[in-house]
Specification:
The protein has helices at 3-10, 17-40, 54-82, 173-187, and strands at residues 91-99, 103-105, 107-119, 125-137, 139-141, 148-150, 152-155, 159-167, 194-198. By secondary structure, it is an alpha+beta fold. The protein folds into 3 domains: 3-43; 74-102 and 156-201, GMP Synthetase, Chain A, domain 3, CATH 3.30.300.30; 106-141, no CATH class. A 3-stranded mixed β-sheet has the order 1-8-9. Strands 2-7 form a two-stranded antiparallel sheet. A two-stranded antiparallel ribbon has the order 3-4. A hairpin with a 5-residue loop joins strand 3 (107-119) and strand 4 (125-137). The longest helix has 29 residues, at 54-82. The radius of gyration is 35 Å and the shape is flat. The N and C termini lie far apart (87 Å).
């Protein structure tokens, strides 16, 4: 079988062979470019993220858990306050947090200074001072079985993204306004961060 017979066998009836080869070439080059870009930039693809280490995943999980716990505590506190507003009736609250509170812990700080005095041949003196600082968290015994926990000196309020209040009296404009003002005053929120809705009967 000669070379010409081989090429004749590859021809499609009624079409010149160069169309076929151009199409196959374009497909091969396209696939090659896509696979090269996937290998060189694996984190840039939509819907994919670079793998995180177990420590990072644990920290993110703990942060998410702390956000959830803080939000639930704020919701319970706010529900208790708003249900006492005249005309509010039963109240349900949902709080969305942007960040958890920042805690500053008490530390025992120890500072050690060492000074060294050196004299050179011409009679000049040079003093070198080294300072070492060592800090340890102050721990306090807890009443529960957990043992000890760090002493919190200062704690900032959590950063609140928005609040939705659903109240039985929410259909009354006056009650709705009073509930909105109560939330805004309590947490210093802007009007667009608070929504008060009537509760479904």
């Amino acid at each position: 079988m000669g070379r010409e017979d081989f090429w004749k066998g590859l021809r499609l009836p009624g079409k010149p062979p160069w169309y076929l080869w151009v199409g196959v070439g374009v497909l091969v080059l396209g696939t090659l470019f896509i696979s090269i870009s996937d290998v060189s930039n694996p984190g840039d693809l939509k819907g994919t993220a670079p793998p995180s280490s177990p420590e990072t995943a644990g920290q993110e999980g703990a942060r998410g858990g702390e956000l959830f716990t803080t939000a639930r505590a704020l919701e319970a506190e706010l529900e208790g306050i708003l249900e006492k507003v005249e005309g509010a009736g039963r109240v349900k609250v949902s709080v969305s947090l942007a960040a958890t509170p920042v805690k500053e812990y008490a530390t025992n700080t120890r500072e050690v200074q060492r000074s060294t005095e050196e004299k050179d041949q011409s009679g000049g003196t040079r003093v070198t001072t080294e300072t070492d600082e060592d800090g340890q968290l102050v721990l306090a015994r807890t009443s529960t079985l957990q043992g000890e926990e760090p002493v919190v000196v200062r704690e900032s309020r959590p950063e609140i993204q928005g609040v939705v209040v659903v109240a039985e009296g929410g259909s009354d404009p006056y009650v709705r306004l009073r509930l909105m003002e109560a939330v805004r005053t309590l947490w210093a929120l802007a009007p667009h961060q608070v929504e008060v809705l009537p509760m479904q009967n």
